[in-house]
Design a protein that fits this description.
The complex is a heterodimer of chains A (356) and B (495). Chain A is an all-alpha fold. Chain A has a single domain, classed as Orthogonal Bundle (ABC transporter involved in vitamin B12 uptake, BtuC), CATH 1.10.3470. Chain A has 14 helices and two strands. In chain A, strands 1-2 form a two-stranded antiparallel sheet. In chain A, strand 1 and strand 2 form a beta hairpin. In chain B, 46% of the residues are buried. With 495 residues, chain B is of the alpha/beta class. Chain B is globular, with a radius of gyration of 25 Å. The model of chain B has no long low-confidence stretch (mean pLDDT 87). The two termini of chain B are 36 Å apart. Chain B folds into two domains: 234 residues, 3-Layer(aba) Sandwich (Rossmann fold); 237 residues, Rossmann fold (3-Layer(aba) Sandwich). The chains are: A mainly alpha (356), B alpha/beta (495). At the A-B interface, helix 9 and helix 10 of A face helix 10, helix 11 and strand 18 of B.
Chain lengths: 356, 495
């Protein structure tokens, strides 16, 4: 049994563990998080004002840029999808007390797996082709998470290190694959050839969002059910609260670690696959840059509650989707959104972690 | 010689429990006072009051002619009191000299490392501490680490040293060295309070011995001329009225057979318990009790030996399989092993049974039956909680332990391993736990009842074993048990 000792286990906000059967409506945790989001918006407004622009106008431009037209809503939903999927997996790991910050690499490798399957797939039946390609992505993401788990459990390397460092390896691996077997010769840019049309994700008509968002919503609901209503979820929550109690309860810690890591890897892999099939329709170098870390943000913002991660991911997705039109219309740099995300993170952590 | 410390009529209550009930303690300069007593007799509380970690409810402390009241540890240190805890307060990654300078204004704002190292060498020579200032503390054996703590006290010119169970983690040669160091400190006029369970050391080292029981002083005797048997008797007392004498037992088949099991801390232990029998295990904490309990219940893997439950070999069975085979376990560590404090009463009641009906259908938790079952157990075991959804951390210690009792006994186990099952509980809850354990025995189960409270062991056991140094120092039936003999077995070296 591997149980590396570490002080990093406290990284989960204490409040999120105080929930009984499920998040109660009107739980003060929700209020705290909303106040934290509000405060971060106020700070961002102050920054806009300091830079000489009108914060109200910037805010309006941000909102209309995100939800001003069906197409803009669709773009925002597409932005949200990978954060939601990968964030759900990260939340499950954190619930079990496993600090998995490898979503970044798992998304990248998942995209690669999906592209590889899509490129060799010759069946024209669209649903089948898409499903096979996404499954390929899930498998690739799970394998990547499995590598981290094997290093963690087998060699007693702390999971933060194992997952974090494999992110860089994953990005380089995708580059290498694009420079070789999966690459498009003569493109002048590291990318794969266009994937067969049969594998593309269908789009939802008025919004032009791809169906990936629906997959992500279903996944979030399934995760919530798993966490609160199944024995596996119970074991995860016990282990996250006390590893000794989990052993005493007869749960196998290595088995739990493997299961939740593979689950998170598969979800991140699907997130990568959806980006590839739904948005770019080819594998592009760096297509997922920063996604994995935003997944952690979203998981914590959603208090590690899979259903609460939906609004959290939407918040980040809408912000980012609106940021470009804010830059176009008002001249406030879109990078401000990154500042808002960072501030939100700080405020949310300040509001939820009880005591160090 | 003048009194260095006078404590008069110290009272400290925790709820209804009078942990210190009017205690007097005097220490003169150049005197070593041994403080003896069982777990829970009030030694630690008294020392925490002295050191300013707990306020006293009444009583007076005079140290070097000045009254200490409402003081904090910082004030106690400034006054010249040093406390050396059982668990050292050292930074392993730092050197000896760095640890000595840590938090000590005299080390200077810009650290005067070389000067401090010189002072360490001098003190080390004078008291035979044999400490190298630039050695990393993490590389030192336990005995040396303890000397670093003593060194800190010496350099800060403490007049009174409190040592809390200083020998419990030391090897015999280290103990001998420690006693030598303490004698040389006495020679320099320091006062020392030496807290221990171990009679031979106390008799060998101390000038005076103060014995506590149930928060009161039961005797103060000079070490010269005190006998072990007399001290053991003062510690344990003899006018103990057993709360209830269990029915004479009619033991059945052997239900738990342990043959020669060894893990680190446990050396080749063998015993059997029959159905309808309680084997009580007495002994000072840290003599292999936790190792024994965890090896039997599957939280630790036995390195050798066999464990048979109803004649089935479970030596290598995982925890869940042992539970299914009929092994129940009440761990001593309630806050993070036996219970998940941040989860609900209902979830804690199913903690070890989530793979069975009524809790689960397939892999999905059965909500209604789960809540109904929890409600049933709450009623049956009189758990005072406003509902099955209440977070366990909000319950009192007694009610928390009732959850563990309910969960482990509702399964109707074949074997129960109970470790400190009544520890820290008020008399009512203690009685409840003991009664339930006895009822389980009367129903034909085998019980291993491990406790450092000798009275409990006497009250409940059919046979009594005493653990010392990872094995049974003795095993007798209760009828033949002699408290003096048991006290001697507990103290390590049998007479």
């Amino acid at each position: 049994m591997s149980e590396p000792t570490s002080s990093l286990r406290i990284a989960v906000p204490e409040q999120t563990r105080r929930v009984g059967f499920r998040l109660q409506p009107g739980d003060r945790l929700v209020v705290r998080i909303l106040i934290a989001v509000l405060l971060s918006m106020l700070c961002a407004g102050a920054l806009v004002a300091i830079s000489g622009h009108d914060p109200i106008a910037a805010f309006i431009a941000l909102v209309t840029g995100a939800v001003g037209s069906p197409h803009q809503i669709g773009a925002a939903l597409n932005r949200t999808t990978p954060y939601l999927l990968a964030g759900g997996g990260v939340a499950m790991c954190f619930r079990a007390g496993i600090i998995n910050i490898g979503a970044e690499g798992q998304i990248a490798v998942g995209g690669m797996g999906t592209a590889a399957i899509a490129l060799v797939w010759s069946n024209d039946l669209s649903a089948l082709a898409t499903a096979a390609a996404l499954l390929g992505g899930a498998a690739a993401g799970a394998v990547w998470a499995g590598v981290a788990t094997a290093i963690h459990l087998g060699r007693r390397v702390h999971e933060v290190l194992a997952t974090l460092l494999l992110n860089f390896v994953a990005l380089l691996l995708v580059q290498q694959v694009l420079a070789g077997p999966l690459g498009q010769f003569g493109a002048g840019f590291l990318q794969s050839p266009l994937l067969p049309r049969a594998t593309w994700l269908p789009r939802i008509p008025p919004f032009n969002a791809h169906v990936g968002f629906l997959i992500a919503i279903i996944a979030a609901a399934a995760l919530s059910f798993t966490l609160w209503r199944t024995r596996f979820g119970f074991a995860l929550r016990v282990a996250g609260n006390s590893r000794r109690a989990a052993s005493y309860a007869g749960f196998s810690l290595p088995l739990l670690t493997w299961s939740v890591m593979l689950l998170a890897g598969a979800l991140a892999g699907i997130a990568g696959g959806i980006e590839v099939l739904g948005l770019h329709r080819r594998l592009i170098e760096g297509f997922s840059l920063g996604f994995g870390f935003k997944a952690v943000t979203v998981a914590l913002l959603g208090a590690l509650e899979p259903l609460a991660i939906v609004p959290a991911a939407l918040f980040v997705g809408l912000l980012e989707a609106g940021s470009l039109s804010m830059q176009r219309q008002i001249g406030v740099p879109s990078a401000l959104v990154v500042v808002i995300e960072g501030l939100t993170m700080l405020f949310v952590l300040a509001a939820t972690v009880r005591r160090l | 010689m003048p009194e260095l410390l006078e404590m008069r009529g110290i009272v400290r209550c925790f709820g209804a429990l009078r942990a210190n009930d009017g205690i007097d303690l005097d220490v003169r300069a150049g005197q070593i006072v041994g403080l003896l007593g069982e777990n829970g007799s009030g030694k630690s509380t008294l020392m925490n009051v002295l050191f300013g970690m707990l306020p006293s409810d009444s009583g007076k402390i005079i140290f070097r002619g000045r009254e200490l009241s409402g003081h904090r540890p910082r004030d106690a240190i400034a006054a010249g009191i040093a406390m050396i805890h059982q668990h050292f307060m050292l930074v392993d990654a730092m050197t000896v000299v760095e640890n000595v300078m840590l938090g000590w204004p005299a080390a200077g704002r810009v650290l005067r490392t070389a000067e401090m190292a010189d002072r360490i060498r001098q003190a080390s020579r004078r008291f035979g501490l044999d400490l190298e200032p630039f050695a990393h503390v993490g590389n030192l054996p336990l005995g040396r680490k303890q000397r670093v703590e003593i060194l800190k006290a010496i350099l800060r010119e403490a007049d009174l040293l409190i040592l809390d169970e200083p020998t419990s983690n030391l090897a015999p040669t280290e103990v001998a060295d420690l006693l030598k160091i303490l004698r040389s400190l006495r020679g320099e006029g320091k006062g020392i309070i030496f807290i221990s369970h171990k009679l031979p050391e106390v008799l060998e080292l101390c000038d005076d011995i103060v014995v506590l029981r149930d928060g009161r002083v039961t005797g103060r005797v000079p070490a010269a001329g005190a006998s072990r048997a007399r001290l053991a008797e003062m510690m344990v007392g003899r006018d103990i009225t057993a709360p209830h004498a269990p029915l004479p037992h009619t033991p059945g088949e052997v239900r738990l057979a342990v043959r020669n099991i060894s893990v680190p801390g446990l050396s080749g232990l063998s015993f059997e318990i029959r159905g309808g029998e309680i084997l009580g295990v007495a002994g000072v904490d840290g003599n292999g009790q936790i190792e024994l309990a965890e090896t039997l219940t599957g939280l630790r893997r036995a390195e050798s030996g066999t464990i048979l439950l109803d004649a089935v070999d479970i030596t290598c069975a995982p925890v869940a399989a042992r539970v299914r085979a009929g092994m129940a376990y009440m761990p001593a560590d309630r806050s993070s092993t036996a219970l998940v404090r941040n989860m609900s009463v209902a979830e804690n009641l199913m903690l070890r049974d989530s793979d069975r009906s009524p809790y689960v259908r397939g892999a999905v938790l059965a909500r209604q039956p789960l809540t109904a079952k929890a409600q049933e157990l709450i009623t049956e075991y009189d758990i005072r909680a406003s509902g099955p959804g209440v977070i366990v951390a909000r319950l009192s210690g007694g009610n928390q332990q009732k959850i563990v009792v309910a969960r482990e006994l509702d399964r109707a186990p074949a074997v129960l391993v109970a470790h400190q099952a009544a520890w820290g509980l008020d008399p009512g809850a203690t009685r409840f736990v003991l009664d339930r354990v006895i009822a389980l025995r009367n129903a034909g189960a085998a019980v291993l009842y491990i406790s450092s409270e000798l009275e409990e062991v006497f009250a409940i056991s059919d046979r009594i074993a005493v653990m010392a140094d990872g094995c049974f120092a003795g095993l007798v039936s209760r009828a033949e048990a002699d408290r003096g003999q048991i006290g001697l077995w507990m103290s390590g070296r049998a007479a």
